[in-house]
Design goal:
There is one protein chain. 27% of the residues lie in helices and 34% in strands. By secondary structure, the chain is α+β, with helices and mostly antiparallel strands.
Length: 668
């Protein structure tokens, strides 16, 4: 077995690999760029080596610097994680030449499967179902148009060396194809150093199903069942689960057999994932094979009880698989949510900055056979950088059944408090409480279909509105008690607490009464005509309110406002103000300040770098015209005109680094 492993990656995946290596008694080496000098993976590893500046091309993508770090520290093996160099056959060959073991598949398998064009050819030769399309490199937009006309719209433009949703565009018409081709090529070149593209038929209303495989160096290959990854934004997964609510035992066996057949055909010898697009009738077609560990691998670990990183290490060390296909059993259900530094209310634009607060829920076993796991590479006070993927953490729940796993996830998201940057927890909570999600009626278009105008927060039903108002009243009572203690009122005869309040939920007023009897605290909402028994363990200043309402355990995230609170619970985020009756009468008389209109400017919606400007001063523009392209966290974002007008002047140039809301151009 290896004595020392270098992890050629960063963030949560580097930390996750370190944990397994430590449990196996193997020392670890972290590498880091200048932007990651204080990162969590650097602190966790036994040793750490600086490998260059913040730019990934000069650090995490520099094979020479990483191999130099291996030699410097005496590492006898290297785990690439995912992304960066994990699927580059040339890197695996360089490691072999240097006498360093690559904890991943052999270069031949990487080359044949890592290139999506070659992978489709290999899959077809192995008898695997493939999506109709053009199996070959598409060299120009004109050639792409001819292919699209032949196979029919819609089509998917994909980077041959791509992954993680980068270098991918859906085109439903010629105009979308031309622009999508250029953007996909630019994104692929930036992310992978390879701008080759191919085109395949896009299947409407598809589901994304993938099969986890393990192969060793002795010809043994098994599959570990499926994961469903249909909940995606910008073609990138954000929620995954295992198993899939679509797949039955017969389909699972058929998909698994095809995945194993393909892995054996290319002599695959590590953990890998064969991805399929599945129709609602359970027919399925090969998409690609990822020759690395997947971001969503924890859900497979949760339902199989296996540690995939450990299996990769043992396979790389030459050990034969101890797992037989007949012994693989999927127990329970697991769900993973990717928590990103992004603003769902602004089209999932990335958010960067300092984590002023990072308070995750407690990991471990829970009631009812459920469990909770968190994979992360951040800490409170750390920075979310503009240079890398915006993932903050992965939250994984497991329970005996799907309903339990979802409910455990919904409760855990309510307890996950982050401040200092924008994040997608309210959006994930909204999905967990979606009726369509809960019944498993999924597709890759789920987000666009459920939030056609973009996510603007979940509108509360009467139940959630009443619960949030009840929580606000309980918080207010706790703060009143604290103030009375500070003022010394409890050292004498206590004055009676105010019993009646007015609570403003956004712009809606509610009359609330507090009742104390031998059974405890009751909060009555006279406006909604409901009454709840409340037991709270919350203290003023805590970021998460926790307690019981009518015997049900409840949690909500709380931020203070002037005379009120901002409360997030089950996907609903609301400003709630609690006032006395006289104060509320005066508040209603106050004028509401309106914000200045900014339609005469194009502002940058996220921190990023200007890639190109598509208009000039004095140019007329129409609604939907492309104005600029800004790259943030390895994704190119197209900024379009929201109204007809004329460009007055440009205030930036290509290559400029912009902050959020920086003015890019002005209109007349």
């Amino acid at each position: 077995m290896f004595k020392k492993i270098l992890i050629a990656n960063r963030g949560e995946i580097a930390c996750r690999i370190i944990r397994t290596a430590r449990r196996m008694g193997i020392k670890t080496v972290a590498v880091y760029s200048t932007a990651d000098a204080r990162a969590l993976h650097v602190e966790m590893a036994d040793e750490a080596v600086a490998i260059g500046p913040a730019s990934a091309a000069q650090s995490y993508l520099s094979a020479e610097r990483i191999i130099g770090a291996c030699r410097q520290t005496g590492a006898d093996a290297l785990h690439p994680g995912y992304g960066f160099l994990s699927e580059q056959a040339s890197f695996a060959e360089m490691l072999a030449a240097a006498g360093i073991v690559f904890i991943g598949p052999n270069p031949r398998a990487i080359r044949s499967m890592g290139d999506k064009i070659e992978a489709k050819k290999s899959a077809a030769a192995a008898g695997v179902s493939v999506v109709p399309g053009h199996v070959g490199v598409v060299k120009s937009p004109q050639e792409a148009e001819a292919i699209a006309e032949h196979i029919g719209y819609p089509v998917m433009i994909k980077a041959s060396a791509g992954g993680g949703g980068k270098g991918m565009r859906i085109a439903r018409a010629t105009a979308e194809l031309r622009e999508g081709f250029e953007r996909a090529a630019a994104e692929a070149a930036s992310a992978f150093g390879d701008d080759r593209l191919f085109i395949e038929k896009y299947i409407d209303n598809p589901r994304h199903i993938e099969i986890q495989v393990l192969g060793d160096k002795h010809g043994n290959v098994v599959h570990l069942g499926e994961r469903e990854c249909s909940i995606q934004r910008r073609n990138q997964k954000i929620i995954e689960e295992a198993p899939s609510p679509l797949i039955d035992a017969k389909t699972r066996q058929a998909m698994g057999e095809q995945a194993v057949r393909l892995a054996k055909a290319v002599k695959y010898d590590s953990a890998g994932t064969v991805e399929f697009v599945a129709a609602q009738d359970k027919s399925f077609y090969f998409l690609e094979m990822n020759t690395r560990l997947q971001v969503e691998h924890p859900v497979t670990e949760a339902v199989t009880g296996l540690d995939l990183v450990e299996q990769m290490i043992r396979i790389a060390a030459g050990e034969p698989l101890q797992i037989k296909q007949e012994s693989v059993e999927l127990k329970g259900w697991a769900v993973e949510c990717r928590i990103y530094a992004e603003d769902p209310n602004r089209g999932f634009m990335p958010s960067t900055g300092r984590l002023k607060a990072y308070k995750p829920p407690k990991e471990g076993r829970l009631e009812g056979g459920a469990s909770l796991r968190i994979d992360t590479g951040v800490y409170e006070g750390g920075e979310i950088s503009v240079h890398y993927d915006p993932m903050i953490a992965k939250l994984i729940t497991r329970a005996p059944d799907r309903t339990g796993a979802i409910e455990t996830m919904a409760a855990a998201l309510d307890r996950f408090y982050i401040d200092g940057i924008r994040h997608n927890i309210p959006f994930l909570s909204a999905i967990m409480n979606s009726e369509r999600w809960r019944r498993g009626a999924l597709s890759n278009g789920f987000i666009d279909e459920e939030f056609p105008g973009g996510f603007k927060g979940l509108a509360p039903d009467m139940h959630l509105k009443g619960r949030i108002i009840t929580i606000a009243a309980a918080i207010h009572l706790a703060e009143l008690n604290r103030k009375r203690k500070i003022s010394g009122q409890f050292r004498s005869v206590p004055s009676p607490l105010p019993r009646r309040f007015n609570v403003r939920f956004e712009e809606e007023w509610h009359s609330v009464e507090l009742l104390l009897d031998s059974s405890g605290l009751w909060i009555s909402n006279e406006t909604l005509r409901d009454k709840h028994h409340v037991e709270a363990g919350w203290s003023p200043g805590e970021a998460v309110w926790h307690g019981q309402i009518d015997g049900e355990t409840v949690a909500a995230q709380v931020s203070p406002l002037l005379s009120g609170y901002r409360i997030s619970h089950r996907g609903v985020t609301a400003s709630v103000h609690v006032t006395g009756e006289r104060e509320s009468r005066l508040v209603r008389l106050m004028l509401i300040k309106t914000l200045k209109a900014t339609s005469s400017e194009l502002r940058c919606p996220m921190p990023g770098v200007v890639i190109s400007l598509q208009v000039a001063s004095g140019q007329d523009v129409k609604v939907g015209d492309t104005l600029a392209v800004v790259e943030a966290m390895k994704m190119q974002n197209i900024l379009r005109a929201e109204r007809d007008g004329k460009v007055k002047r440009l205030l930036v140039k290509p290559g400029d680094t912009l902050a959020v809301d920086a003015v890019i151009m002005e209109f007349e």
